[in-house]
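Q: Structure tokens for this one, please.
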Amino acid sequence: MVDHSSNLPSMLSDFHLPGLKGKKVVITAGASGIGFSIARLLHAQGVKVAICDVDADALRRAGAVMEGCTTVEADVSDEKAVDSFFDAVQENLGGLDALVNNAGIAGPTGNLEDLSPDDWRRCIDICLTGQFLSARRAIPMIKAGGGGALVNMASAAAKHGYAYRTPYSAAKFGVIGLTQSLAKELGPDNIRVNAVLPGIVEGPRMEKVIRDRAEATRIGYSAMKDDYLNNISMRRMVTPEDVAATIAFLISDAAANLSGQSLAVDGNLEKL
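A: Here is the predicted structure, written as tokens:
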């Protein structure tokens, strides 16, 4: 497993953005990977953090290193679980300033004709419907506080489309539509809505994607990984900390007039 924490110590001590301290922020799927990097960075800035995740063990570990963090086991595709999570957020935080719709899965890899309707539904339910379910609970809370921010996790798949990963690409294109519609709808309520499009993010999930695609296309793993890297102008994968810093900026007062945007964090991904 790749250690995502190597860049955190200096970032946690050196990072500063205006208007973060004291904000109340929800991060879905916040117990590991990108979500945990977001939660930990915000927590270090004095943000009151609430996270949900399907992994109870990861939630316990995350809670142990973020004092005062609200942790709830919840699947974002389950309406009742989402409702219970936001009820806990209201009780523990007393309101909400921002939502980070981070939860998602890689989805199946393969030719479309070989995928089942269940494969399709599961990916759409978690990657897109989960953002809808979380946003519909978060928005009234953010309105009640006088405004704030929503950040929806999209993907480079929402720019390029991923061959052999059609459900995921479709879901992430949907996230862009959700973001742009909500930016128009919620602007008069002083709520900014933006999407972040991570490129190829290092870690176990990306390793699996590369292996699955290598198998589906009958190309060796090393050759497939080199192909990915050669299509990034910076010739390196994105780290979870890169994404976390961008999201912290979007939540902060430094982005006070930034809305309806799709920000790619991908080292200039040229093609896929």
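A few notes: Confidence is low (pLDDT under 50) at residues 1-5. Residues 113 and 164 are 10 Å apart (CA to CA).
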